[in-house]
Design brief:
A: alpha/beta; seven-stranded mixed β-sheet; 20 helices; B: alpha/beta; three-stranded antiparallel β-sheet
Chain lengths: 681, 369
């Protein structure tokens, strides 16, 4: 272990990470200069760290990562996280399929991604080492629980000898620590059995890391007390293990250096750490309060969307009704029924669920009722990769229904932005009486970041106007008479005297909403439904173009969760002296009115996506521009360095047409010749 | 709460957790006085009824329009949700609120409506294909939840709107367009299916029996929870005479078992037949003069255990020989919408948290200027 910055790679910031020693640091680190036993320890200041925790699915790596994240957020660093776990709840212990990991990037400045590669890797067993070592750059810090490197565990993943001892890890800074036995030793008087005590090794590890990075510890102690308030013995043991890990760091010779990362400058205000699914849930609760309507969620459990159902089920006091339906179809059906009754109907799911809900989405298009459909995208097709992220439901959201069934589609770009996207989805649904699809994804859902907490007074007023009296010339009620500006139809809720009417999936006659098979009427109504959705563009703010130098000839356009990696790649490009413009689209249908004109300004437009070029196809079709599609579908977010290389090639004129990242983790393959449009799909 | 508090109606009409939201209550109130004194003609719409001449659906529509006013519910407080099929055109002909939805999904849509609007009287009109085939899953789950709905299942034992394929209630061997050599599917008995899902109210009636149909409908509408009424309905185009065995005055009384709560199950010409218990705890048909009077089962629709009602439903063969008609089961259980509303009210009573409290969460920090 040396006192240097372990294995630093160029950061999001695009500049070599600044490194300071304790001597020139402005912060208080004095208490760690000397520790018990007279051991002298030094403090190194870093501007950023990427740390990855990896272990067995049962080792509690997600919990450990979340706690470290909370401590880090409370300390004031900016951060982004990337949980990565298997679909199996408990794959066979100690095997490669059972490895679960959590990556956290935190810094003294704004960060946009969870980091391309870890600087520090903590592995709880041989499987975790095997599955993650290739991502740890040479010289990186590797902390391993030596107790778990038993002949049996080594054999499970095909290690012929113990890598902690055979010299094969010479290229990294290996610190081999008996985490398990130190945990059981610390808990020998806790009243817990050995097996039970061992389960606290994640808290021991968290304690050690908390010492290493000077994290505040009170939050974790409070969390453990709260979490195990009905099991005081377990709470006490976890807290004891956590403190033992911290004290071990403080006293051991194995770790001579600890690190400080100063808080990041942030705008004044109140912050909390939030995941995308949490933010999305709060956005839906807020939409209910802002609209004055009861929220009704109809949902069927599905990864990675279930946490929204869990979260919303806690907010009954704010008028939120949650209905765990018998299937995806009943989930959306009940939500639509509730909307008919005047509620804000919502259904949450992932791609396979959207497939099942398609017919009901069509019914919502035809009945012109507000409905929010949340699709937390995952790898597909079919069951695909339930716990991995992808953006491959875009065309399904845009077009995946029978008939001409236009549906507004919007996508958040960061975990915290899921809140605003949810409120915006509700605004569109209620204002225009239409189903709206919100495309989140697995990375946004489980990733986390500090979030500036909004207050209700600053949020938009979403109260709809219900029809309460007849609107026809002859004193009748015309449910399909439209607002001239929004083209939204009149919405009368059951219980309103004199406005009884019938709606349904059959084609409606203009104004009356009666069944009509008339050819002219169908043509008119089909175009009217499209015009209504197209008209939403008038309510969308002007597109922001991020081009600080103002002379970019290449624009990169993205949507959804690629915002962070694309932004980080742009920082790198700019740091190297080149210019690039970044455009990130929230409204995918209708597209912003100014988007075509903006894209036409650039010599080249690049569109990175975690699919095979779905948005690029839309842009090509809509604006007749030769979009360079760059794609990968590895179940993980883009790496900033790889994206930067692609952008650089485009700027330099070395790439055209379609490129993709292969399963190989480092190579980017550039196809020399433009692929036919069809091949990009 | 700024945005909400500025709303003129919110202060009058309560808290966010109220069963009916302030916004909806305000809208309903603004529309004026409710009129619960209706006549059958008040329930008719200006839409031309488009069932085939002679269809059993007409008589059911007439019976429903004649009987509904007796419930004393304003027509704007009634909602009829249907799926797809001939019967599902029903809402267009009723001057209430209505939704003609998609195939099989009416129970799910009605569940969301009833669960969020306990102030409404929600009805589902469906058919044997809609409810038991494509929508079978929604039907059984709605029944087990006991959502406050009245489901009218028009059973004509055929697919009518798609022009004559066999349905999940068609008898084995039935020759249809899609079964030229006869159906090899065993049919559902809808009453047995509903009872298997622990339905709290299950009845059966005949389209042409105005008195019997009205009586079952009345009890179904008054029942709190999900009521399922199977209505035998003649499709005179694709399955004409399907229920002739029961309708024919010569044969009907022989095979029909009228169910009257508290009355012995005696039927047939001159009361020649009756229902007694069999040695396995089920029921069987006996000749009245061959058994002691004490052996004859007295109908009890309120039995908590559904096995008795189930046993009654199993007296029928697929050719309708022995068809109990009337109310099989009617038991009181908490309704889904009531329990959901109770949870919301309990939660609201225990919490003073505002949206702002929720947004800030437990672990926030402040960055000062």
């Amino acid at each position: 272990m040396t006192g240097t910055n372990p294995g630093m790679t160029p950061a999001d910031s695009g500049v070599a990470p600044g490194m300071h020693t304790a001597a020139d640091a402005e912060f208080h680190a004095a208490e760690t200069h000397t520790a018990t036993g007279g051991l002298v320890k030094s403090v190194v200041a870093l501007d950023r760290v990427v740390i990855r925790l990896a272990g067995d699915s049962g080792d509690g790596m997600q919990l450990t990562g979340n706690r470290f994240t909370s401590e880090t957020a409370a300390f004031g660093n900016d951060l982004k996280t990337l949980p990565n776990f298997p679909a199996e709840i408990r794959a066979p212990t100690g095997t490669l399929p059972g490895v679960s990991s959590f990556q956290l990037h935190f810094a003294d400045h704004g960060v946009m991604t969870p980091g391309d590669a870890p600087d520090v890797l903590v592995v709880m067993n041989p499987a975790a080492l095997k599955a993650n070592l290739m991502d740890l750059p040479g010289g990186g810090l590797l902390i391993a629980d030596s107790d778990e490197f038993t002949p049996r565990n080594l054999a499970k993943v095909g290690y012929a000898s113990n890598p902690l001892e055979d010299g094969s890890l010479e290229g990294w800074q290996l610190v081999s620590v008996p985490l398990t036995s130190m945990t059981t030793e610390a808990l020998k008087d806790s009243g817990l059995g050995k097996k039970e005590a061992e389960r606290s090794k994640n808290m021991f590890t968290l304690g050690l890391l908390s010492w290493m990075y000077h994290r505040p510890t009170e939050g974790t102690v409070r969390f453990l007390e709260r979490q195990f308030r009905r099991k005081p013995l377990i709470a006490a043991a976890n807290i004891a293990a956590f403190r033992a890990g911290y004290n071990y760091g403080d006293t051991t010779e194995a770790f001579a250096v600890s690190y400080e990362i100063k808080p990041a400058p942030m705008a004044p205000g109140r912050y909390r750490n939030i995941s995308g699914n949490q933010a999305l849930s709060l956005g839906l609760v807020a939409a209910g309060q802002l609209s004055g309507l009861p929220v009704f969620l109809g949902a069927y459990p599905i990864t990675p969307a279930s946490d929204i159902l869990h979260e919303l089920s806690k907010h009954k006091a704010l008028g939120v009704r949650t209905f765990q339906a018998e299937d995806e179809i009943a989930g959306i059906g009940a939500a639509l029924g509730a909307s008919f009754g005047g509620a804000l109907g919502i259904t949450t799911t992932s791609g396979p669920g959207v497939a099942l809900k398609s017919e009901t989405i069509g019914l919502a298009v035809m009945t012109e009722l507000p409905l929010v459909i949340v699709d937390v995208q995952r790898g597909g097709p079919s069951t695909g990769l339930p716990t991995k992220t992808e953006q491959s439901d875009l065309l399904q959201a845009l077009y995946g229904r029978n008939g001409e069934a236009p549906v507004p589609v919007i996508a958040p770009r960061s975990p915290g932005d899921c809140f605003d996207a949810a409120v915006e989805a509700a605004r569109i649904a209620l204002t225009y009486r239409t189903p709206v699809i919100l495309l989140s994804d697995g990375y946004l859902a489980n990733g986390a970041e500090p979030w500036s907490v909004p207050v209700q007074a600053d949020l938009p007023d979403l109260r709809p106007v219900f029809a309460t009296e007849p609107n026809g010339e002859d004193g009748e009620f015309l449910p399909y008479l439209r607002d001239p500006e929004t083209l939204a139809r009149a919405w009368a809720v059951p219980g309103t005297a004199g406005l009884q009417h019938r709606i349904g999936g059959l084609e409606k006659a203009d104004k009356t909403g009666n069944i009509s098979y008339d050819a002219e009427n169908h043509d008119f109504m089909t175009r009217m439904r499209q015009a209504k959705v197209d008209g939403i563009a008038a309510s969308i703010p002007a597109t922001e173009v991020d081009d600080p130098d103002g002379d970019a000839r290449v624009a990169v356009i993205g949507w959804g969760s690629t915002y962070g990696p694309i932004g980080a790649a742009c920082r790198r490009i700019r740091a190297s002296g080149r210019s690039i413009a970044q455009v990130h689209v929230r409204h995918l249908n209708p597209l912003p009115a100014d988007l075509g004109e903006i894209l036409a300004r650039y010599d080249r437009v690049v569109c990175p996506e975690m699919n095979l070029g779905q948005f690029a196809m839309v842009l090509r079709a809509k604006y007749l521009i030769d979009v360079h599609s760059h794609t990968q579908v590895r179940g993980l977010p883009f790496r900033a360095a790889e994206l930067a290389a692609v952008l650089q090639d485009v700027i330099d004129g070395n790439a055209a047409g379609t490129t993709h990242e292969t399963a190989d983790r480092t190579d980017t393959t550039i196809l020399d010749t433009p692929a036919p449009t069809g091949a990009a799909l | 709460m700024t945005a909400i508090e500025s709303h003129p109606h919110v202060h009058d009409l309560g808290m966010p957790g109220n069963p009916i939201s302030a916004a909806i209550a305000a809208s309903v109130e603004a529309s004026g006085e409710k009129n619960a004194t209706l006549k059958a003609k008040d329930l008719k719409t200006d839409q031309e009824v488009r069932w085939c001449p002679g269809c059993g659906d007409y008589v059911i529509l007439n019976a429903v329009q004649s009987f509904l006013p007796s419930l004393g519910i304003a027509r704007e407080d009634m909602v009829i949700v249907s799926g797809i099929g001939c019967s599902s055109r029903f809402p267009y002909y009723m001057n209430t609120y209505g939704m003609h939805s998609i195939h099989g999904r009416a129970p799910a849509i009605a569940t969301g409506l009833a669960a969020s609007r306990p102030d409404l009287s929600v009805w589902v009109v469906t058919g044997d294909g809609d409810a038991l085939s494509i929508g079978g899953n929604h039907l059984i789950h709605t029944l087990r939840r006991n959502v406050n709905l009245t489901i009218l299942l028009f059973n004509n034992r055929i697919y009518g709107l798609t022009k004559g394929q066999y349905s999940p209630t068609s008898e084995v061997g039935k020759v249809t367009k899609s079964t030229p050599m006869g159906s090899i599917d065993a049919p559902f008995n809808p009453v047995s299916l509903a009872l298997g899902a622990d339905a709290t109210f299950v009845g059966r009636a005949m389209d042409s029996d105005r008195k019997g149909l009205t009586e079952v409908l009345r009890q179904a509408a008054e029942h709190q929870g999900t009521s399922l009424v199977e209505i035998y309905q003649n499709c005179n185009i694709f399955n004409d005479g399907a229920f002739e065995l029961l309708k024919d005055p010569a044969t009907g009384p022989m095979w029909t078992i009228p169910l009257v709560h508290g009355e012995p199950l005696v039927f047939g010409p001159g009361g020649a037949s009756c229902v007694v218990r069999d040695e396995f705890g089920g029921l069987r048909i006996a000749e009245t003069n061959q058994v002691e009077a004490s052996q004859i089962v007295v109908h009890d629709a309120h039995r908590e255990d559904p096995s008795y009602a189930f046993a009654l439903s199993r007296l029928s063969s697929q050719d309708l020989r022995y068809s109990p008609m009337g109310v099989f089961r009617s038991v009181a259980k908490p309704t889904y919408d009531r329990m959901m509303t109770d949870q919301l009210e309990d939660a609201a009573a225990q919490s003073t948290s505002t949206l702002d409290d929720l947004l800030a969460g437990n672990d926030s920090w402040t960055v000062s200027a």
